[in-house]
C-alpha cells in the first residue's frame, strides 16, 4: 500500500509544544493547506467552499515509533495511563492524524483554515467535508473522557505581561499569550498535566507560582486553586547574559530580539 501526501499544512505552530491538544483551542491562528500542482486537485476541490468545516487526514511526521499506552493531559480518576486506541495520542502504530478544522476559504490550490492542531510543515494525506448530520453525535458516550478531573481555568494577563507580549508580537511570530492560555487553562499544576513532549513547566506549590517555557522565552504566572484562575505576570528571556554576548552562537536566530527586549524590560 502506498500513500502519498497531497499537500502541506503551513501555520505558526513549529514545535510540538506549540500545538494545542485540540484544534478548537487554537481559534484565531489561521493556517493554510497548499495542495500539490499538476494532480488535477483544482477539480477535486470543486464545491468544497460551501462547507464550514473539513476533516484533514495527515501524517505525524515528527514522531517515531508508537506506544501502547499514553498519559492524557487530564487523566481519568484512578488512572495514570490509558490505551493508545482509546486516546488521541500522536504515537500510533501508523502515524496518521485526523483533525476537524474550520474552513475559511479556498483559493486555487490553497485552503485557508483555522482551529488546526497541526505543526508547520505537516504532510496532508486527504481532505473530506465535515457533515453534521453524519459526523456529529453529541449524545454519544465518551468513555474515560467523561471521568476526567478538572475544568477549564480562566487565564488573565497583568498589565506588565500584556505590554511585553504586545512588544514581542509586533516584532516576531511569537504569541506567548495564546500559548500560555492553551497550556495553562487546564490547571491542575500540582499533578503536572503535561505529557513528556510538553513538560516545560516548573511550579512552586507553596507560593502558587510557576514558569512556563515558550521557545526561548519564559512566562511567569501565579495561580489560584480556589477560583481556578491563572494570572500571567511577566515575560523573561531564557538566555543567560553569556548567551547574549556578541559573537555567541545564535541557533534560533532570535538573540537580537532578546537583546532589544532586555534593553526595554
Give an overview of the whole structure.
With 265 residues, the protein is α+β, with helices and mostly antiparallel strands. The chain has 5 helices and 13 strands. The protein has helices spanning 41-44, 132-135, 159-171, 176-184, 255-264; strands at 7-10, 31-35, 53-59, 69-70, 82-83, 96-107, 110-114, 122-129, 154-157, 201-204, 209-214, 217-224, 229-237. The strands form 3 sheets. Strands 1-2-7-6-3-8 form a 6-stranded antiparallel β-barrel. Strand 6 and strand 7 form a beta hairpin. The longest helix has 13 residues, at 159-171. It is globular. The termini are far apart. Mean pLDDT is 86; it is low at 191-198.
Describe the secondary structure blueprint for this structure.
Blueprint lengths: L6 E4 L20 E5 L5 H4 L8 E7 L9 E2 L11 E2 L12 E12 L2 E5 L7 E8 L2 H4 L18 E4 L1 H13 L4 H9 L16 E4 L4 E6 L2 E8 L4 E9 L17 H10 L1
Parallel strand pairs: 9-13
Antiparallel strand pairs: 1-2, 1-8, 2-7, 3-6, 3-8, 4-5, 6-7, 10-11, 11-12, 12-13
Major sheet? 6 strands, antiparallel, barrel
Average pLDDT level: 86
Supply the helix-strand structural class: alpha+beta
Order of adjacent strands in the largest pleated sheet: 1-2-7-6-3-8
Q: What's this model, at a glance?
A:
By secondary structure, the protein is of the alpha+beta class. Helix content is 15%, strand content 29%. The protein has helices at residues 41-44, 132-135, 159-171, 176-184, 255-264; strands at 7-10, 31-35, 53-59, 69-70, 82-83, 96-107, 110-114, 122-129, 154-157, 201-204, 209-214, 217-224, 229-237.
